[in-house]
Design brief:
6-stranded parallel sheet; about 15% strand
């Protein structure tokens, strides 16, 4: 690192106004400035953006930030613009003029930070531009990297190709060029951490693990016996928190619309939110909620990532998510200002005899996943031993997802981000289904446990030492059983 640490701290104070870093921000910044790879597990609200924005601003060249959601990119780029910092973004929702202006700025090396999705990064015009030898790239920041291993509706197959990006870019850059990779996520168990390092082809990465425990966040699970009881309990909970900002998570677009309409009929300032809404609708809902015009949003998992609202006092899971990673990310939206917040998850009685809706919902999602795997198995038999992803996508509607699934099983390698090669003819998609089932069982065990919920989560995400030391009074079980 050619930059004196005092200069780093002065720049930090000048831009953000703080005297010193929060742990482990300083260590992460030092690692990235020395050009080393890093895997960073930092809970929601942990000051992640500063960790890569400051190194990018202190170095010559472009840092590429790969992010899965437009809302997340826009939020961060707007913050950069308010601070007068050289950052921009590219996505399909920009006007033609905005896109052209940003592309010119990249070509003329006006920016230090470029935000885009993995799909945009791997589009032909962007790839050709950033591959030019004169475009200096100093870093590659990959955000929300749990998308590598999270299957189902949140799976982004383009993430599986990101490991070939640095390798391919370096072939076009002057000899001696170094591009450090920083992989960020809020949650990753030890197995996921290994997968991230392997898929992204990281070189001796330094790992930063910050416990997801939040002493201000109370975790609660409550059984409901009928669909009507679920609605009434939710209403009672929200009535007791008049004018407090919150979120209600559901599992489908239809549930989002129906439940929000019911609350609107009761004169609540509420909006439904899901991936099926047009962009302008989504942006308006986000802004109304952030400003306090809307008290709460009834949303699917499409909402929350990258949306910064510190004063969320409660989070309800009207339906429990399938995976612990989803759960801990979503409850983490609450209490980011370090003031008390409550997370409540509603579940049907566990036998499913009296109230089968949770069981039916889980079975529906499992069937969809099994269908995806079966489809992949059929397509895999028809794939040539090597080829271009553009051709495969034209020939097979599910071709890209199939290649992503095969890559996760070690049956496909990427020669570059656009060309694959088969490694084996044997298909073992049942391994993937078994892995998914284990993750679902882990979530079910969490919902059923009578032990400390925070200890369970810490153990699941590899923080055994912290779990043993924890004295919790921030979950329903500790209040009821553990004292």
């Amino acid at each position: 690192m050619n930059i004196a640490w005092q200069e780093v701290k002065e720049k930090f104070k000048q831009i953000w106004g703080y005297e010193d870093f929060r742990s482990p921000q300083g260590e992460i910044i030092h690692t990235l400035l020395t050009g080393k790879d890093a895997v960073i597990i930092l809970p929601t609200g942990g000051g992640k953006s500063i960790c890569f924005q400051l190194p990018a601003l202190l170095q010559q060249g472009l840092t590429i930030v790969v992010s899965p959601l437009v809302a997340l990119m826009e939020n961060q780029v707007n913050q950069l613009k308010k601070l007068g910092l050289p950052g921009t973004l590219l996505h399909s929702e920009l006007s033609r003029n905005e896109k052209q202006a940003n592309l010119r700025g990249i070509a003329e090396q006006q920016f230090r930070l470029l935000y885009l999705s993995p799909e945009t990064l791997l589009s032909k015009p962007i790839w050709e531009l950033i591959s030019q030898p004169q475009i200096k790239i100093t870093g590659l920041v990959l955000d929300e990297v749990h998308c590598l291993t999270q299957w189902g509706t949140t799976f982004r197959p383009a993430y599986r190709r990101l490991g070939a990006v640095r390798r391919s870019l370096l072939q076009h850059k002057p000899p001696g060029t170094k591009i450090a990779i920083a992989a960020f996520t809020a949650t990753a168990d030890p197995q996921t951490q290994k997968a991230i390092a392997q898929v992204l082809e990281l070189k001796e990465p330094k790992t930063f693990l910050v416990s997801p425990y939040r002493s201000n966040l109370s975790l609660n699970i409550q059984t409901v016996w009928t669909p009507r009881g679920r609605k009434q309990l939710t209403l009672k909970f929200i009535q007791a928190r008049a004018n407090q900002s919150g979120l209600v998570y559901v599992r489908s677009r239809q549930d989002s619309q129906t439940l929000a309409a019911w609350f609107q009929s009761l004169n609540y300032s509420v909006a439904p939110y899901h991936a099926g809404l047009v962009t302008s609708q989504r942006r308006k809902i986000e802004q109304d909620w952030i400003s306090g015009k809307t008290q709460f949003v009834v949303c699917t998992s499409a909402f929350g990532m990258g949306i910064d609202k510190p004063d969320v006092r409660w989070v309800i899971h009207y339906h429990a998510p399938e995976l612990l990673t989803e759960y801990i990310q979503e409850v983490g939206r609450g209490g980011r200002d370090n003031q008390p917040a409550t997370a409540l998850t509603l579940i049907s009685e566990l036998t499913g005899w009296l109230n089968p809706e949770d069981k039916q919902r889980s079975q529906f999602f499992n069937r969809k996943l099994e269908q995806q795997y079966r489809q992949a198995q059929q397509i895999a038999k028809q794939l040539p031993n090597q080829g271009a992803i553009t051709i495969i996508k034209e020939q097979f509607p599910q071709g890209e997802i199939t290649l992503g699934i095969l890559h996760s099983l070690g049956l496909v390698s990427w020669q570059d981000p656009f060309h694959y090669r088969k490694r084996s003819s044997s298909i073992a998609l049942n391994h993937l289904a078994a892995r998914q089932k284990r993750h679902q069982q882990q979530m079910q065990q969490y919902l059923k446990t009578r032990e400390c919920r925070w200890q369970y989560l810490l153990q699941a995400f590899g923080f055994s030492r912290e779990a043993q030391r924890l004295k919790c009074d921030r979950c329903d079980n500790c209040r009821q059983y553990c004292n």
